[in-house]
Amino acid sequence: MKDGRVLNWNVQSDDPLCTLQEAFEKVNPRLGFNVELKFDDNLVYQDEELTHILQAILKVVFECAKDRPIIFSSFQPDAAQLMRKLQSTYPVYFLTNGGTEIYADVRRNSLEEAVKLCLASGMQGIVSEARAVFRFPTAIPKIKEADLSLLTYGTLNNVPEAVYMQHLMGVNGVIVDLVPEITGAVSDLIALPETDTEINDLSGKVVKDAASTPNFTQREISFLLRLMPELVQ
Predict the structure, then answer these.
(1) What is the CATH number of domain 19-153?
(2) Tens-place pLDDT, residues 81-132
(3) pTM, entire model
(4) Rounded CA gap, 206 and 54, in Å?
(5) Does the keyword NADP apply (predicted)?
(6) Dist CA 197 CA 111 (whole Å)
(7) Which residue of 16, 55, 132, 194 has the smallest Cβ count within 10 Å?
(8) What is the pLDDT of residues 207-220, one digit of tens each?
(9) Beta carbons within 10 angstroms of residue 43's beta carbon
(10) H helices present in 5-129, as ranges
(11) 34 vs 25: CA distance, rounded Å
(12) Closest CA to 96 of 83, 85, 107, 82
């Protein structure tokens, strides 16, 4: 305290962590949950142990989620695969650094390996570190061809122009800290056409341009050119 007094602090009463059940009960049911399945990178988990942990989580989800949108995600390849095997109600996404960090498990070291893992186990998508999609943009069409959803996370997603670039590249969604700010800023960057515009393609045919058009100012382009090399490295 400012007056020099020292007060006892008890984590159970003063700042307890909520349980998954409490989160389901107290958070607006319209808000979807990304239930990340966290495991220690330094431990080797046996299937029996993973099954026990995941079944405990599923018990709470099935009892409390009701109509709330849910996805599961995990950096742990075996846990992600097993969660997909244990249930088919909710989508499972594989979390990956996409090669921005290297691990002993090769399945964690690239977007290409992430695609292989998802296809082998029937997972619905990938959540990649945002820097990886800028480092390896050619991976995005391959992810789309595999009919997988692609989301990203990371500090780069707190930069509106970087999020908008991902929108243009085909990323399906982003995980951000500053939700209202990024949503508003990116909405301003996306120029929706007032009417369909007819344009001639290279074959001379008239086609409809129904897509949003890039709306970067010269200042924003200059900002991106300065910012990207530093953040993507």
Answers:
(1) 3.20.20.190
(2) 999 999 999 999 999 999 999 999 999 999 999 999 999 999 999 999 999 9
(3) 0.79
(4) 54
(5) no
(6) 36
(7) 194
(8) 334 344 455 556 55
(9) 8
(10) 11-14, 20-26, 47-64, 77-86, 111-121
(11) 16
(12) 107
